[in-house]
TrEMBL record:
InterPro entries: DHFR-like_dom_sf (IPR024072), RibDG_C (IPR002734), Riboflavin_Biosynth_HTPR (IPR050765). It comes from the Bacteria. Residues 3-180 form the Bacterial bifunctional deaminase-reductase C-terminal domain. GO terms for biological process: riboflavin biosynthetic process. Pfam families: RibD_C. Gene3D superfamilies: Dihydrofolate Reductase, subunit A. This is Dihydrofolate reductase. One of its GO terms (molecular function) is 5-amino-6-(5-phosphoribosylamino)uracil reductase activity.
Amino acid sequence: MRKLTFGMNLSLDGYIAAPGDDLGWSTPSDELFQWWSDRVGATDLALYGRRLWETMSSHWPTADQQPGATPAEVEYARRWRDMPKVVFSSTIGTVDWNSRLVSGDAVTEMRRLKAEDGGPMDIGGATLAAAAMRAGLIDEYVLVTAPVLVGGGTPFFTALDNWVNLTLVETRTFPDGVLLTRYETRR
């Protein structure tokens, strides 16, 4: 059975995007960017909701060809293109960049993917991750918390019907006071 991880940058007050989908507060340090890049390199399959897919696919497929692209950005762009991806959406018709589209029931498909043999899966996108949280499918939560309060926006966590007990497995501090915490779900 595959492991499913939900990890994102978030504000101290728990938002992955400020009002208006503003992400200006979450620019990573070089060290944190490398950590995310290494994570992409180790991910066997990424699951994306439509909005995050549109954000990522509008930049990373050609980011390594942009003037002034850093070696780290070139590496991330290559890793992102090479990583297999599943995009969940009922409103877009096609995806590319080593991706396939699922327009049916997301929870059913995520359960099927988890049951397969294979390496770790990451899930991204607040709406998709919320469905996985409510269904009890997430095995690990990775919170990369920036020392900023944005006051609203898109929350990292969704409302749940039941408690989810977690075990802290890692903490790490990055430049600018950014704190990584990893928690495994206790089953």
